[in-house]
Fold this sequence. Notes:
By secondary structure, this protein is mostly helical. It has five helices and no strands.
Amino acid sequence: MKGLELPVNALVVLTIAVVVLVGVVFLFTGTFSGGKSSFQLDIVKNTACKKLVEIGCDTNTDEINNLDISLGPDGKPKTGDDTLTRLCDQYYNKKTQQDCRTLCGC
Length: 106
């Protein structure tokens, strides 16, 4: 039995080391974050609301639905399908256009 004791202990230590290593990798790559951080969401919301205020808070629904707020990994605007309406609905639970306007301070 003593002959097997060393390899079993080594396997246990090796397994624990691999689990810790994988956890550290996930921590540094942001895999544990589960998506956009609240800080990033606030930046995107503020940018979108600024655009809404610039074009006028009383704009029609189509303009708000088409207000592109997509940001690239560098934080700069890019073309995409993220809109202010979608942001209000998915991240701030604002289902109506008026609720979305209110979120933006209109």
